[in-house]
Design a protein that fits this description.
Blueprint: H1 2-12, H2 14-23, E1 36-37, H3 43-47, E2 52-61, E3 68-77, E4 82-87, E5 93-95, H4 98-106, E6 114-116, H5 120-141, E7 147-151, H6 153-162, E8 166-170, E9 174-177, E10 185-188, E11 191-195, H7 197-205, H8 213-231, H9 234-251, E12 253-254, H10 258-264, E13 276-280, E14 283-288, E15 291-296, H11 298-310, E16 330-335, H12 342-352, E17 356-357, E18 361-362, E19 371-375, E20 391-395, H13 397-400, E21 406-409
Parallel strand pairs: 1-2, 2-7, 4-13, 16-17, 16-18, 16-21, 19-20
Antiparallel strand pairs: 2-3, 3-4, 5-6, 7-12, 8-11, 9-10, 14-15, 19-21
Helix pairs in contact: 1-8, 1-9, 1-10, 2-9, 4-5, 6-7, 6-9, 7-8
Length: 415
């Protein structure tokens, strides 16, 4: 439902987007590169199209709106013009974070300390359901969620119908009669299909796959990519804008304000639909105490998060073997923590060790516990890791800018 996230943004500034698609002109746009968190972006930053990274949690709720039947995070990086979608299985086993427990207690509600991810919304109630689920995802993945979007299946059907349906290949026959519980009849045949809203719901809700929920997620991701391409096409926007606006404001619950949407619409032309990647939380299905859970792999999850959300190339994190000397490169140290003067102290330490150092700066983006050593090319930067408590090298040429060769963003663990 990354399509829904960006459709919401598009619709809030639909006229602007339509104007851009027709004329190719965007007011005040340039190629300045300043990496910001989406929540830190102001209107001037947006008009200048300074680069942002944004994480949006998307929740599809079940029939009674209690549990999150579909959960995933959409990561947008304007520098690479890419969208990544990470699906989180609904049965993922989690231990409620302290903040989530405090919020539930404040509402006078009960909870289970260890539970499934899709139950966090139910424990929290209507008022805090989305916020607490977003907080739990932050705890699970170690990222910041900038916004959330929640839809039910009535909204899902209406969105698909509003864009005239979606064409895709259905990978297997899907037959499942759930009408005895007041639910739907699923009856889809294998092969190329044109899916209206009703048939699309059957597709994304079907669960009887040989590999369980993982198979279901894979099919959902294929459909969502097809829907995203349809929603974001010029023809769809210009032809169906009134219907899409009606659907968005009638059905969708989100913390994306009108002012947020008007800022983000400036980035819609910086979306390359060929760069949509889709992944699933690493792990396996497993019974624990007679309950079926999805148990995520902690180490593989960390590697996936580093790669998807922080652009850390796997090969660049290796600390073994010979490291290429970085002393010939110009290095900027940026304070991403909360200790005043820390960037200056580390700049002096590196300078004393023989490195070329640019004036220290303050980092305005997302704070991390570990230090990020950003380099323009693989094979450099690993000789700097030993200067810090917890550091990783990431290849991020578009985030560094042209004035320096390496940027070090200090983490909160550094003192």
């Amino acid at each position: 439902m990354c399509s829904i996230v960006f459709a919401f943004v598009i619709l809030a500034g639909g006229a602007c987007f339509g104007y851009y698609k027709i004329t190719g002109n965007v007011p005040f746009a340039n190629d300045n590169i300043v990496s910001n968190n989406a929540s830190d972006t102001n209107f001037l930053d947006a008009f200048l199209k300074r680069n942002i990274k944004m994480n949006v949690a998307v929740f599809g709720v079940d029939k009674d709106g209690t549990r999150t039947d579909v959960v995933f995070v959409v990561h947008y990086d304007s520098a690479t013009e890419s969208i990544s979608l990470v699906s989180l299985p609904r049965d993922t086993r989690v231990s409620l974070s302290e903040e989530v427990k405090a919020n539930i207690n404040a509402e006078g509600r009960s909870y289970s300390q260890v539970t499934k991810l899709n139950a966090v919304h139910a424990f929290s109630g209507e008022k805090m359901g989305c916020k607490n689920t977003a907080l739990q995802i932050e705890d699970l993945l170690g990222i910041k969620i900038d916004h959330y979007v929640k839809i039910d299946f009535e909204a899902f059907r209406a969105i698909v119908d509003a864009v005239g349906g979606v064409d895709m290949y259905v990978p297997q026959d899907m037959d499942w009669d759930m009408r005895d519980t007041g639910d739907l009849l699923i009856n889809l045949k294998k092969g190329d299909q044109h899916l209206d809203g009703e048939k699309a719901e059957q597709l994304v809700r079907f669960r009887r796959y040989a590999d369980g929920d993982v198979g279901r997620i894979e099919v959902q991701q294929i459909f969502l990519k097809a829907l995203a391409e349809k929603v974001l096409s010029t023809e769809t926007i210009l032809k169906n804008l009134p219907d899409l606006i009606s659907v968005m404001y009638k059905y969708i619950e989100t913390d994306v304000s009108m002012s947020d949407a008007l800022k983000y619409v400036n980035y819609v032309d910086k979306v390359d639909m060929s760069k949509i990647s889709m992944e699933t939380l690493p792990g396996v299905g497993q019974y624990v105490g007679g309950v079926s859970y999805f148990i995520h792999d902690v180490e593989e999850t960390r590697e996936m998060v580093d790669r998807v959300f922080y652009s850390v190339a796997p090969a660049a994190t290796a600390t073994s073997g010979a490291a290429q000397d970085s002393k010939a490169l110009l290095i900027e140290v940026s304070n991403g923590g909360s200790v005043n003067g820390l960037a200056g102290l580390y700049s002096k330490k590196l300078e004393d060790a023989g490195y070329k150092i640019a004036p220290p700066t303050n980092y305005s983006g997302q704070q991390n516990t570990y230090t990020r050593i950003q380099v323009k090319n693989e094979g450099v930067g690993s000789d700097l890791i030993s200067f810090f408590t917890d550091a990783k090298v990431e290849v991020a040429p578009k985030e560094i800018g042209s004035n320096v060769d390496i940027r070090i963003i200090l983490g909160s663990k550094e003192q």
